[in-house]
Prior knowledge:
The protein is α+β, with helices and mostly antiparallel strands. It has two domains: 28-71, no CATH class; 73-125, Nuclear Transport Factor 2, Chain: A. Helices cover 42% and strands 15% of the residues. The chain contains five helices and four strands, in the order αααααββββ. A four-stranded antiparallel β-sheet has the order 1-2-3-4, with no helix packed on it. It is elongated. The termini are far apart.
Amino acid sequence: MKRLLFLFIFTYLFSAELMMPPPIPSINKTQEKRIKSNNLMPKECATIPPMLIILPPPLEKDLVKCKNEYFKPSKKFVFKKLKIIPKEIKAVDGFENLYEIKYNKNTIYCNKNLSKCFEVKKWLK
């Protein structure tokens, strides 16, 4: 009976340790100074912990790449929403959730839900 009880307790403790979420990355000194120099975070950030707003640079780059791929509109969605047949859809480097959509001989830039789009025209000299 003692063995069974010991086995149960050991299994419970071991499984509980595996289910723990990973720790949140800590804020480094530079980020801490930036937060303190602003005195207060903007009111829009009141409910969000600073370590989610100010991510370490490698993590921030990976997060932007991940979000860009995750929210990239499909060709079917572009056709349904804009009534064009896209040839290529890709994320624009240096931006978050901005996509370059090529169709026919034109290129437009749109946000993730295609509610705002614009076309860049070349100036002729």
